[in-house]
Amino acid sequence: MSYVVGYGNHYPKHVHHRAASIPQNGVKSTCTGGYKWRDSPNPNPHVLTGAMVGGPDKFDGFHDARNNYNQTEPTIAGNAGLVAALIALSSGDNGKGLGIDKNTIFSSVPPMYPMEPPPPPPWNP
User: Fold this and answer.
1) What is the DSSP code string of the chain?
2) How far apart are CA 104 and CA 46, in angstroms?
3) What's the rounded Cα separation, in Å, for the pair 112 and 88?
4) Alpha-carbon distance 71 to 106, whole Å?
5) Fewer CB within 10 Å: C terminus or N terminus of the chain?
6) End-to-end CA distance of the chain
7) What are the catalytic residues?
8) Whose CA is closest to 6, among 26, 20, 25, 24?
9) Which residues lie across from 52 on neighbouring strands?
């Protein structure tokens, strides 16, 4: 079982996420109007590829249902560690990289800290 949506053959199909669970049909829905999709047994019409959900309970059980937000909601705090780990695999000292990012998924992400400036030219009195 993968807890990263869209990764592998068996991943969460009922992610607790409004944009993923409501079909794009041009009809505007109120907050309570979205409950019919939240409570639907059908898989989400949109796949949140790469989002990591909460994961299993303390007994390693996982109930893939939209209303089970503790296990099926992808949160910013929960995904931050995954993103940090992936960035660590793709960037190395001085931005040279470790060579692990084969798909160059993070090649366009600027470093979060300024790079060291180049050394000054030699001084000629």
Assistant:
1) --SBTTSSSS--SS-S-HHHHS--SS----TGGGHHHHT-SSPPSS--TT-B-----TTS-----TT-HHHH---HHHHHHHHHHHHHHH--GGG---S--TT-TTTTPPPSSPPPPPPPPPP--
2) 25
3) 12
4) 27
5) C
6) 68
7) 16, 64, 73
8) 20
9) 4
Q: 83 is written with which tokens?
A: 């993103």
Q: Rounded CA gap, 76 and 62, in Å?
A: 20
Q: Tokens standing for 54?
A: 């909460």
Report CA Rg, the chain: 21
Q: Is the pTM of this model over 0.85?
A: no
Which pair of structure tokens corresponds to residue 10?
Answer: 């068996």
Pair of tokens at residue 39: 């409570």
Reply yes or no on whether the pLDDT at 96 is more than 90: no
Query: Could you tell me which of 24, 15, 29 has the C-alpha nearest to residue 67?
Result: 15
> Which two tokens mark 84?
């940090």
| CB-based contact 81:88 (threshold 8 Å) | no
